[in-house]
Design goal:
The complex is a heterodimer of chains A (606) and B (192). Chain A is an all-alpha fold. In chain A, 60% of the residues lie in helices and 2% in strands. Chain A has 17 helices and four strands. Chain B is mainly α and 192 residues long. Chain B has one domain: Cytochrome c oxidase, subunit III, four-helix bundle (Four Helix Bundle (Hemerythrin (Met), subunit A)), CATH 1.20.120.80. In chain B, helix 2 runs parallel beside helix 6, helix 3 packs antiparallel against helix 4 and helix 5 packs antiparallel against helix 6. Classes of the chains: A mainly alpha (606), B mainly alpha (192).
Chain lengths: 606, 192
């Protein structure tokens, strides 16, 4: 079925593109402010909504990390402004232990789910899938809109949890029981945890609605000639991301349902033999907290790849465009994405090596975990060989893409350490783990996101971001990321555990007082540079240099065949037909050949 | 119009129907997660063994029968026998509600036998039964609501609808929740 027929058939599509006429595709309903900017069903507007909501959360989540880094770097100092900001949570200018744990927990939850899941794949899956496959919109624009508004609702609930009297949830972003299951366990386990659960349930619904739509769109709505093996790697990556989400979020949801029953209906799925100070012994018998960990990490590990794969896809595309070379090993890139997607479901127990897991079972998970190094290495090799002898244009998007590769290598290598259960016994829950996942998943994916924003900003807003600010942003962030997280490896090897409130109380960690101060200082500088990026972003929306040609980067993919400011429906007139893959750069002496150009008789192999 | 309907039905699957398939895969993963947790839990200490409520056999028969009625409803829609179609979807929805009622009776039966489903005295064996069966009931309820939607459509005289997409999708989903229950029933009795 053609795209036009699909859009024509369901009433909920909201746009009435004529299936037969070629000359009047642009006749929309009259758009009001509400239908254009608020309850929009245009995938491009929904993408921007995801992006800006994600940016708000990134600022809040980043600010939280600055606050708790302040405590870690300067455990003996007081900062009166903190009392103005946090009130009773920073009595006398010093963050209380409860507030510290709440900040750490909310930082994790927000960054993992709201910024790097919704903000990253929500933005770019929405923006790029229809534009790059040649579709006028998603399979169901209405569901797409719902996906954003569920995310928005989740955001509001999570935000409101910051303001309740007992504080937001403070038991770690993984929400392990019993802290998450028993209101009496800690202040954050009361209303804060209820709101956390409601927010996360809404978030799961948002992810599922989005993911279903992305899968259906990629598989059913491609334009004529766009076979699966002609898709840009961005689309492949976003497709696998959606598959991972659709298969793993329901399992997290089932874990949450059991948690809700334990919290509110007195069941004993996760609880057993518990004594709470001041409350006494609980009647719960026979539950297992490990069960929650299994259900959580069955999502939790695929979640890592839900975060990482979109960045990988965008980086592949941006590296190829700006090296003016075809991506090296296109099929190997798809194959490795597929392998990562499969393995993502088979490694969750490597988060649980020290839970008393059977060592024989553990060794299976070690093997499967280390196997991920193979597709990861293939990808790194292909990125480097794409750069090799390329005619490289160092645009800010390209810089962030190369930075991504660097961070992915640095952070990926320590994954091989942690994947060994024998080493993990020593390194588990230390700063080594913090360093590993922040570099390979956190900062690397942020770099992918920045690369995507710099690269596709001209398509989003019809203007460029400022390059000078972009370069400052890049170099300070890259240097800062390494300066923050590299030293943490040494702290972790020395046995410094994560989530402690004050390390100066331990004789063995006193040696790191200066280092902690250094890390905290760099964290503040890096945070300040992100504000520069925010300024660049919002300034450039209105005042940036205007895009004057439809294809400013000289790229092959379909989004650059649309008008500079495409309307709802993307293409004026017919959707272009595709005749080749997305990576004909430097072929037969031509700098680039767009996907819509028919294959000529004189072309070399195709 | 009929030409478009024909085109819709030819070869390639409709995107919305495809989305439904993926969504069913997603729902299946949730139940797979729960039944896996059930197995893990069962192999640990203090698992309460008890007989399933007998009424679950009747509810199984009811939901199997409702699959036949919705299948026939789809057939009558395509044969344009609208009166028969309306009767059959009504019967299907009623059977769905009966199914939910019978499941509730099953829970009451357990409570009557002093097997607590929730609360301090509950064992997770019974709680699991409540959570998993309850979630399945919610999904059946979703199917009943979907039937109500196409029911209203069928009685609206303003528009004549020739596309069988809605009834096809509702039928597909209904068979899915049916098979899902059969799986759970077999799981409770013989696997878990």
């Amino acid at each position: 079925m053609s795209n036009e027929a699909v859009l024509h058939a369901p009433a909920e599509a909201g746009l009435h593109l004529d299936a037969h006429g070629d000359d009047h595709h642009e006749h929309h309903h009259h758009e009001t402010f509400i239908s254009k900017y608020v309850f929009s069903q245009d995938h491009k507007m929904i993408a921007k909504q995801f992006l800006i909501t994600g940016m708000v959360w990134a600022v809040l989540g980043g600010l939280m990390s600055v606050l708790f880094r302040l405590q870690l770097g300067y455990p003996d100092s007081t900062f009166p402004f903190l009392q103005d900001l946090l009130g009773k949570w920073a009595e006398g200018g010093k963050i209380t232990p409860e507030a510290y744990y709440a900040l750490v927990t909310t930082h994790g939850t927000v960054l993992v789910f709201f910024v790097l899941t919704a903000g990253l794949s929500g933005t770019f899956a929405n923006f790029l899938i229809p534009l790059q496959i040649g579709a006028r919109d998603m399979a169901s624009p209405f569901m797409n809109m719902l996906s954003y508004w569920f995310f928005f609702a989740a955001s509001i609930v999570m935000l409101s949890s910051l303001f309740v009297e007992t504080g937001p949830f403070s038991g770690g972003w993984t929400a392990y029981p019993p802290l998450s299951a028993l209101g009496d366990a800690s202040p954050g386990s009361k209303t804060g945890m209820d709101l956390w659960l409601i927010s996360m349930a809404l978030f799961v619904v948002s992810s599922l609605l989005g993911g279903l739509n992305y899968i259906a769109t990629v598989l059913n709505m491609r334009t004529k000639g766009m076979s699966m093996t002609r898709l840009p790697l961005t689309i492949w990556a976003l497709f696998f991301t959606a598959v991972l989400g659709v298969l793993s979020f329901p399992v997290l949801f089932s874990g949450f349902i059991l948690l809700i029953f334990d919290r509110n209906f007195g069941t004993s799925f996760y609880l057993s033999d518990i004594f709470i100070n001041g409350v006494g012994a609980l009647p719960n018998e026979g539950g297992s907290a490990i069960l929650y960990q299994h259900l959580f990490w069955f999502l939790g590990h695929p979640e890592v790849y839900i975060i990482l794969l979109p960045a990988m896809g965008m980086v592949s595309e941006i590296l190829s465009v700006n090296s003016r070379k075809p991506i090296f090993g296109y099929m190997a890139m798809i194959g490795s994405l597929f392998a990562i997607a499969i393995l993502a479901f088979l490694v969750w127990a490597h988060h649980m090596f020290v839970t008393g897991l059977n060592p024989f079972l553990g060794s299976v998970f070690v093997l499967l975990t280390l196997l991920i190094a193979v597709p990861s290495a293939i990808k790194v090799f292909n990125w480097l060989t794409t750069l090799w002898r390329g005619n490289i244009r160092f645009t800010p998007g390209m810089m962030f893409s190369i930075g991504f590769v660097s961070l992915f290598i640095s952070g990926g290598l320590t994954g091989i350490w942690l994947g060994n259960s024998a080493l993990d016994i020593h390194l588990h829950d230390t700063y080594f783990v913090i360093a590993h996942f922040h570099i390979v998943m956190g900062v690397a994916s942020m770099f992918g996101m920045f690369a995507g924003i710099y690269h596709w900003f001209p398509k989003m807003y019809g203007r460029f971001l400022n390059n000078t600010m972009g370069y400052i942003h890049f170099w300070v962030t890259l240097a800062g990321a390494y300066l923050i997280f590299w030293p943490m490896h040494y702290q972790g090897l020395a046995g410094m555990p994560r989530r402690y409130y004050d390390y100066s109380a331990w004789e063995s960690f006193k040696q790191f007082t200066e280092l902690n101060r250094f890390i905290s200082t760099v964290a503040m500088i890096v945070f300040a540079v992100q504000l520069l990026f925010l300024f660049n972003f919002f300034y450039s929306i209105f005042k940036g240099r205007k895009v004057t040609t439809t294809n400013p980067w000289g790229a092959n993919t379909l989004e650059w065949t649309t008008p500079i400011n495409p309307g709802h429906g993307n293409w004026v007139g017919e959707i272009p037909e595709v005749h080749r893959w997305a990576y004909d750069y430097g072929k037969d002496g031509k700098e680039f050949i767009v996907q819509t150009k028919a294959v000529g008789a004189d072309e070399s192999h195709h | 119009m009929e030409a478009i309907v024909k085109a819709n039905e030819s070869k390639r699957i409709h995107p919305q129907k495809f989305t439904l398939w993926v969504a069913m895969g997603s729902i299946l993963m949730m139940f797979a997660g729960l039944t896996s947790a059930y197995i893990v839990k069962k192999n640990q200490s203090s698992w309460l063994e008890f007989d399933l409520p007998v009424v679950f056999w009747y509810s199984t028969a009811v939901i199997l029968f409702s699959s036949i009625t919705i299948h026939l409803a789809g057939k009558s829609f395509k044969a344009r026998e609208m009166a028969r179609y309306r009767t059959l979807i009504t019967v299907t929805a009623l059977l769905g509600i009966l199914f939910i009622g019978l499941q509730v009776m099953g829970f009451m039966d357990l409570e009557a036998r002093n097997i607590a489903l929730t609360g301090a005295k509950s064992n997770s064996a019974a709680s699991f039964l409540l959570v998993i069966t309850g979630l399945h009931m919610m999904h059946v309820l979703g199917g009943v609501i979907a039937i109500l939607v196409i029911f209203v459509k069928a009685y609206s005289s303003r528009t004549k609808n020739y596309s069988s997409l809605s009834i096809d999708m509702v039928g597909l989903y209904w068979h899915f929740v049916d098979i899902l229950w059969v799986y759970l029933f077999i799981f409770y009795n013989w696997i878990g």
